[in-house]
Design brief:
Blueprint (H helix, E strand, L loop, with lengths): L1 H18 L9 E7 L5 E7 L19 E2 L7 E5 L3 E3 L2 E3 L2 E10 L2 E7 L15 E23 L4 E14 L2
Antiparallel strand pairs: 1-2, 2-4, 3-7, 4-7, 5-6, 7-8, 8-9, 9-10
Length: about 170
Amino acid sequence: MKNLFLMIATIISISACGQGDKASRPSPPAIVKATLASGANVSIDYSQPSVKGRTIGKDLEPMEGKVWRTGANEATVFEADKAVTVEGKALAAGKYGLFTIMNGDEWTIIFNKTWNQWGAFSYKEADDILRVKVKSGKANPFSEKMTFTIANSGKVSLMWGDKQVDFNVK
């Protein structure tokens, strides 16, 4: 009986946490938008985890060689209202789950057709629309909160801890 009570209380607590104001989450939501020179409107909707003294790749995602939702909470969503190219490869207008894989200083940027999902728990490689590989660099300054920027030139930057990963959208 005691175990049943604990299980019900846990389920209620988890449900209640999921219903609250997203801005009060430990990894709050953020969105970045830009209109590119081509006229395409591009946005990235994500949640911002914080480093909090932890080590990326050891205590904190991304983990080497593993698919990462590229943020926290729900999967990060990349949206373009017109067809674009990413690192020279075609990507149709639409919404995509934005995932990454870190392999040392080489990162794979993944655009997945299943954009409305929690984290990377239901991620399926078969749903990938586009994958591109880019090199990472050193973020300057250190970024306590994971942050995306999009320049009107199409340069998308992900800053997370001491890492910076850039890719080009045209």
